[in-house]
Amino acid sequence: MPGAVGRPALPHPLPGAVGLSHLSAYDWEAADGVCGGSPHLHLVCTEAYVVTGGRGAVQTLSPDGCRELPLEPGAIAWFTPGTVHRMVQGGDLRITVLMQNSGLPEAGDAVFTFPPEVLADPDRYAAAAQLPPGTGPETAAAARRRRDLAVEGYLVLREALAAGDTGPYLEFQRAAARLVRDKVPHWRELWQAGALATAERTGAQLDALASGEPAYLDEATAYEAGPTRLGGFGMCGRRDEYNLPGTTLPYGGE
């Protein structure tokens, strides 16, 4: 059971069952002259950027308005569910991404800021969001088209929000929620087996310590891993992934 001390529900997850990947921000110029990634939001996951090299920014849209957070080595930026974010390239930007509820973003908890007519049609959205397999020129071209479509919708949201009109932004949030509603049962399973099980194991370990019988310490060990795919096409940039059970799994089609 998830709360039991012993073997985790998912094999050796990272601390807190977080997701982990590395990103190099896209240097493709968008319609507004800015180089960077595909604006999107997450519905139930908080995401953090740990900057390891270069310069850039993350642009966000949220109820507190339009913001641009500078990114430089050593900086950390994070954003809660519902925050639209767009990584902006300033020069060799490189980040490590820490993602709450590992497995959920890969299962669809990330919705691009495509125009409303695309968001309203699940089949059309899926076609626009999907990339061909591999890391070759065809995939790169599709990733850039996807980015451009997301920027098209994002600029409309940003312009309205900057003018004090929250309507388009709030409607995008609602459209995103409608789009993923059918995925929630699967997400719940992933959460129960991952992040929830990890937290419940800590509770069981505390109980064992309080009882004076910490037998779970007999299973102490260490693990190691390296990236299993380099240079995949993620939402924000080229993505190095760790294909570990209970941590980050490759995005479908990316």
Give a brief rundown of this model:
The chain has 5 helices and 9 strands, in the order βββββββαααααββ. The protein is an alpha+beta fold and 254 residues long.
Question: What does this molecule look like?
Answer:
The protein has 254 residues and is an alpha+beta fold. The chain has helices spanning 116-119, 122-129, 137-162, 167-180, 184-211, and strands spanning 19-25, 40-41, 47-62, 65-71, 76-79, 84-99, 111-112, 229-233, 237-241. Strands 1, 3, 4, 5, 6, 8 and 9 form a seven-stranded antiparallel beta sheet that branches. A two-stranded antiparallel sheet has the order 2-7. Helix 3 packs across helix 4 (167-180). The longest helix is centred in the last third of the chain and has 28 residues, at 184-211. The protein is globular. The relative contact order is 0.23.
